[in-house]
Design goal:
There is one protein chain. This protein is of the alpha+beta class. 19% of the residues lie in helices and 41% in strands. It contains 5 helices and 11 strands; from the N terminus they run ααββαββααβββββββ. β5 and β6 form a beta hairpin. α1 crosses α5.
Amino acid sequence: MQVSSKKTSTVVRFSLLLAALACGGDSDGDGGAGALCTTFSACGGDLAGTTWLSQDLCLPDDFADSLFQELPAECDGAIVLEDATSNTTLTFGADGTFTETGAATVQWAMSFSQACITAAAGQPADELLIGLFCDQVEGALAEGDGTMSPAVVTCDVVDNACNCDAVQENPVDATGPFTIEGTQVVYPDVGLRQDFCAQGDRLQVASIEGSQIDAHVVYTRAP
């Protein structure tokens, strides 16, 4: 008996989310706002020759639920973002090249109920299937898959539910050309763009345009 690898990959794909943001920050609890988070509005600004330090990752309260719409309704609330922190330095060079280096760390709590596992697996979840599902989730997160970093994860079956805690550190090491078009930073070599607003000592950068992640990162100007 085996849980579908496709369904398992859907469950564990959360570990790609921070890489999709292409930047880091800090968040408390299930989404929400850090101390520097305010309503984001793109305003543009001058970025050339500036260096910034990431401070806050600003996420909506329903962030986790909105990312796992492929999971059955029985799994609503099964995955909770506990914390997301980063220590990155973002530089926009006067030569039209940006770099961002550092690391971002994501912490998640998961509790997959018997009903959730039954719906995800497409068959009744008995004790054996719940244990197998739990082992597959733990193994997939611990090993990574070549596109995501391995996580430090522990999973246990308690009262017919699979409960997991996972912490993943994601190295951030990005560089390449950039241009400014109105209120967007454009990365021409990869065909991506982000709304931004640079005012005084604060920079806010939205998630990649067209992504399913409704978030923005707050940076402060490096001393």
